[in-house]
């Protein structure tokens, strides 16, 4: 009797697809390996296995970065879609099986909690009815403490130097703006240099704030000492005080936009220009629970696209 051998396509290489997508999104093997909690050797092997099964090279690697080949550019959007659909399918199965909520604790800056984040979280939860979110909105210092103490799974916060026990991934950047009353002598200007603020009363955010640390470091070399006459804890309070004429403030663009106060004007600050970096932060070496991991990937995809 003759045996007929039928050729079947190989099974879908989920781990290989996950490695390929992570490398393409992160722009390199090292950051992709950190994202997946793997060694660079392991993630390279997964990519090589996928390329062998396809008979195509998906990425070209240089000393500093990676680039998609034509085959890789063709595959990437479909691979991202497949992985998202698989995660949603697994979420639905888990919800049916366990009939319980999965809580994610996200630490976040108040400026993000009051602007970008609500719409994103609504989109994330729309197809995940079993997810329960708990937001810890606070300063960068408070957020880092919550991560270190295990009170938060993940954070969307200001990225600062010297956070060696935490892993940070920049996603967005925004300038610090000068906020002045609508009737102030500078209000009609498009931009103002720091030197022009000599003699002006300034309203500072409290010293534990990451934004205050950023501003102090950037202005340390000025030929004059800024007159931080007043101090407040919340940025919304600073905006209200500026509108009332108490002084001027230096605040991130998102905080100004969220305030939507007609009594203020925001101007570009130069010499020096101060830019703050916002991104995802978590404990180094930690393995995120399933839903927290999916939220991290979701925020990375949405905010990385908006950068």
Automatic annotation (TrEMBL):
PANTHER family xref list = HTH-TYPE TRANSCRIPTIONAL REGULATOR YBHD (PTHR30419), NITROGEN ASSIMILATION TRANSCRIPTIONAL ACTIVATOR-RELATED (PTHR30419:SF8)
Instruction: Please provide the record's keywords in A-Z order.
Output: DNA-binding, Membrane, Transcription, Transcription regulation, Transmembrane, Transmembrane helix
Tell me which species this is from: Plastoroseomonas hellenica
Could you list the residue ranges that cross the membrane?
Answer: 104-121
Q: Does the keyword Membrane apply?
A: yes
Q: State one Pfam family annotation.
A: HTH_1
Question: Domain HTH lysR-type, which positions?
Answer: 12-69
Protein's name according to its UniProt entry: LysR family transcriptional regulator
Regarding protein family, the annotation reads:
Belongs to the LysR transcriptional regulatory family.
State the taxonomy lineage. Bacteria, Pseudomonadati, Pseudomonadota, Alphaproteobacteria, Acetobacterales
């Amino acid at each position: 009797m003759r045996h007929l051998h039928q050729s079947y396509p190989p099974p879908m290489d989920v781990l290989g697809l996950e490695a390929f997508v992570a490398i393409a999104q992160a722009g390199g093997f090292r950051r992709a390996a950190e994202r997946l909690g793997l060694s660079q050797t392991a993630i390279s092997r997964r990519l090589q296995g996928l390329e062998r099964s396809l008979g195509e090279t998906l990425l070209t690697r240089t000393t500093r970065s990676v680039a998609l080949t034509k085959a890789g550019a063709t595959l990437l959007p479909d691979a991202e879609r497949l992985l998202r659909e698989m995660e949603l399918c697994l979420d639905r199965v888990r919800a049916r099986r366990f009939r319980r909520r999965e809580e994610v604790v996200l630490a976040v800056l108040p400026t993000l909690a009051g602007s970008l984040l609500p719409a994103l979280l609504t989109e994330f939860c729309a197809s995940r009815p079993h997810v329960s979110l708990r937001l810890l909105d606070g300063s960068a210092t408070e957020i880092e403490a919550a991560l270190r103490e295990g009170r938060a799974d993940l954070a969307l916060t200001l990225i600062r130097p010297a956070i060696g026990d935490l892993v940070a991934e920049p996603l967005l950047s925004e300038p610090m703006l000068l906020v002045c009353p609508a009737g102030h002598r500078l209000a009609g200007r498009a931009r103002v240099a720091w030197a022009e603020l000599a003699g002006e009363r300034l309203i500072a955010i409290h010293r534990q704030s990451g934004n205050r640390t950023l501003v102090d470091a950037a202005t340390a070399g000025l030929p004059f000492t800024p007159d931080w006459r007043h101090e407040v804890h919340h940025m919304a309070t600073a905006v209200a005080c500026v509108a009332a004429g108490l002084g001027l403030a230096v605040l991130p663009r998102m905080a100004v936009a969220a305030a939507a106060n007609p009594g203020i004007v925001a101007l570009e600050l130069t010499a020096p220009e101060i830019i703050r970096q916002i991104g995802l932060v978590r404990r180094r070496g930690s393995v995120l629970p399933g839903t927290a991991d999916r939220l991290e990937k979701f925020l990375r995809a949405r905010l990385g696209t908006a950068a």
